[in-house]
Amino acid sequence: FMNRLIQGTYPPGSPYKIVTSLCALSGGSVTRSTAFKPCTGSYFYGDRNFRCWQRSGHGVVDHTAALVHSCDVFYYQAGLTLSLDSLHDTANILGLGQLTGIPLDSEVAGNIPSTQWYDSHFGKNKWTRGVILNNAIGQGEILATPLQMAVMTARVASGNAVLSPRLTVSEPLPPYESLPFSSDDIKWIHTAMTKVVDIGTGTKAKLSEINVAGKTGTAQTPHGEDHAWFVCFAPAEEPEIALVVLLEHAGHGGTVCAPVAANWLTYYFDWKNDRMVAR
Fold first, then answer.
1. How far is 115 from 85, CA to CA, in rounded Å?
2. Is 71 helix (H, G, I), strand (E, B) or coil?
3. pLDDT tens-digit series, residues 223-261
4. Coil, strand or helix: which one is 160?
5. In what order do the strands lie in the sheet with 227-234?
6. CB atoms < 10 A from the CB of 269, how many?
7. What DSSP string runs through 43-65?
8. Contact partners, residue 258, CB within 8 Å, separation at least 6
9. How far apart (Å, rounded) are the C-alpha atoms in residues 133 and 129?
10. pTM of the model
11. Is the CB of residue 154 less than 8 Å from the CB of residue 15?
């Protein structure tokens, strides 16, 4: 009897790389063309080996290719250029770690950990900066609801910093306020997410006549098989619909969630076209 839309909290996995990219771009620590050390399938930091989902490695990738092909090693290195609190603040701007405001009972806020959060849970100086490597790829202590991920996707698609969910179209639209990121960086995110579907990890969401911008995710969980995610919006050049698919313990987002998104988007745009013809 749990409403997973607003009460289920899950590690967001690779869709969170959108947050990391915008944080790094806005802070200037990473550019759209930055390339770090090559991805060999793993990255050593301290006494830990942080693996990439592509065990054979991605080789040398720039920022765009890293998002398109979801290279964890690139994002580990990008995370180390950031402060934990700047990543936390960027996630908040995109609607994570807080209530969305939907008028339904018992919504939960999820968790986007800050320095203060780690200090209170583990003790000051009892945790290391290595936590940001997991945070940068949407793992670790990060938790989000499916609705929060939909809000994040819609905000990135629209550029509206205060976009919040409504239950009916008769409710007034929320005010518009631009996201505090450069328009060029937002356009870059749109382009990279479109390439995710065209040539990257999300090709199973591709439609024949409509461009889709998306991001796949495979989130590790200690309670079974990985959760599968796919977040997207369409049409990529003029977004009008944002969609999030989460399948619990289902494996790879690009394999199992992207086809679900493609079917749903096909239904939506067919329904929209039928309504236009009827008029």
1. 6
2. coil
3. 889 999 999 999 999 999 999 999 999 999 999 999 999
4. strand
5. 213-219, 227-234, 241-247
6. 17
7. EEETTEEEEPSSTT--BS-BHHH
8. 197, 202, 203, 204, 205, 214, 216, 230, 245
9. 8
10. 0.96
11. no
